[in-house]
Amino acid sequence: MTLTDKLLKIQNWTLNNYNYPTNSLSEKTDKSLFENIEALLEEKLPKEFIELYSRFNGEIGEETGILLGLEFMDLSEIISQLKQSRRYIKPQKKTLENPKKSNLILDKIVSHFKELKNNFQSWDRIEFNCSPISFGGPYLYKNNSDSNIIIEIGQKTDDIMKLCGELYEIEKATDNWDELEFKIFSDYKYEIIRKNEDWDTIMEFKSYPPKSILLKYFHYKWLPVFTDGGGNYLGIDLAPDIQGKKGQIIIFGRDEALMPVLAENLSSFFDLCLLKIENNPELFNSENHQHEILKSIVGAPYEFLQE
């Protein structure tokens, strides 16, 4: 049975055994995107991945995912996630490649607040934080007070985030910051902090089996294939730890501090799914998240599942 035959069989079981409508497979694939993915991974794509995506490009619809409820990602979604994963790579030495160009963009961001000058009385400073994908504030402080009020700036929020995106693009190679923190004073002088998070310490990561998966928040060589739609993924590990095997199938993501190896490769993972839906179909009718079900299937210890 080919890899695609196995996926079709799992999709068919999902369609017939879940109480919700199920998405359909997309056959409109674009093999030219393989090169984009290889560039982001800095690796050749596994043959299994090429075989699967040469036939199907994820799924279509807004219903239940085809793999036991998990969504089959299309190539554009994979590229987007890999780009995000690369944001967690931090340069060892942080510098500004083009300070003059950076300062011009920062001045443009601050200029948005100059237009609001007449709306504020006796103000000391404005503080806010931003990134290409987030914005916090702005908070107005009056008369050197520590108390603040949030002010509305409408469309300017989107304009500032766009400028943050421009700044990030020219600085990411030498200072891959996560967020900018601004203080703008009443004379429109400003202070800025380029904030970097240590993402690999935000949770206590564990691998099952031990030393099979690198203990990281995200890695740019973890190739996502399926998702729960909430920032968590099932995919191919191209950078295993010392006891792991390149190409192994793992669970990782925003909420996954406890990461298991599910199978040595994609074909054997599909075999595992087919075995379980034939012999233990009741497993997939539980209220548990699909990732927790899969963890239990591969024998993750009880304490591993409960933490």
Task: Note down, in words, how this protein is organized.
- With 307 residues, this protein is α+β, with helices and mostly antiparallel strands.
- It folds into 2 domains: 3-88 and 201-306, 3-Layer(aba) Sandwich (SMI1/KNR4-like), CATH 3.40.1580.10; 99-195, BH3703-like domains (Murine Class I Major Histocompatibility Complex, H2-DB, Chain A, domain 1, 2-Layer Sandwich), CATH 3.30.500.
- The chain has 9 helices and 13 strands.
- The chain has helices at 3-17, 33-41, 47-55, 75-86, 99-114, 156-171, 266-279, 290-297, 302-306; strands at residues 24-25, 59-60, 71-72, 123-131, 134-142, 148-150, 179-185, 190-195, 206-208, 222-227, 232-237, 248-253, 258-263.
- A 6-stranded mixed beta sheet has the order 3-10-11-12-13-9, sandwiched between helices. Strands 6-5-4-7-8 form a 5-stranded antiparallel beta sheet, covered by helices on one side.
- Helix 2 runs parallel beside helix 4 (75-86) and helix 5 packs antiparallel against helix 6.
- The longest helix has 16 residues, at 99-114.
- The protein is elongated, with a radius of gyration of 24 Å.
- The model has no long low-confidence stretch (mean pLDDT 91).
